[in-house]
Amino acid sequence: MKLPAEPHILPDLLRPDLALVFCGTAAGERSAREGAYYAHPGNLFWRALHEAGITPRRFVPADFPTLLELGIGLTDLAKRHSGNDADLPRDAFDVPGLLDKIERCRPRLLAFTSKTAARAALGRAITGYGLQPERLGVTEVHALPSPSGQARRHWDIGPWRQLAIRYREVRA
């Protein structure tokens, strides 16, 4: 007898042919409690989207479903675990599941919201932010500085702005 799968902490916000999908490692504790992506007030994700020029206004975490209207999706590598990356079990990241989603949905851009997420998904060290040499099928891959408050010393809006340029190009 097959047991039912554990529910996802946060639902995927995906559909075919999106312009851009953001992929994080896992929902933080605050996001898990609130049922919304990037919900901790110290997280710069929503501010970065607006400041980089990806969204026309500064969204709040509860607005995440409306990103689909802009051709933007959201997912995480760890769909059944939440918390800080260091506290996740070794098998938390479902890379085959992510690759399957990207293959099925075929977004034009995939942006990992940290080097940790990009490294786990691509299976190699990430030496720089921005466009990566790999493509996942038709999907261009980018690595971004983490918007997490815990990664503030590595913060740089520049790669987010570069992604915004590509996003506008693929949406045109």
Radius of gyration: 15 Å
The global form is globular
- Determine the structural class based on helices, strands and strand pairing: alpha/beta
Average of per-residue pLDDT values: 92
- Describe the main β-sheet briefly: 5 strands, mixed
Can you tag this structure with a few keywords?
172 residues; alpha/beta
Please, could you describe this protein's structure?
The chain has 172 residues and is an alpha/beta fold. It contains 5 helices and 5 strands, in the order βααβαβαββα. A 5-stranded mixed β-sheet has the order 2-1-3-5-4, sandwiched between helices. Strand 4 and strand 5 (139-143) form a beta hairpin. Helix 2 (45-52) crosses helix 5 (158-171).
Please outline the helices and strands.
Elements: E1 20-27, H1 29-34, H2 45-52, E2 72-82, H3 95-105, E3 109-112, H4 115-122, E4 130-136, E5 139-143, H5 158-171
Parallel strand pairs: 1-2, 1-3, 3-5
Antiparallel strand pairs: 4-5
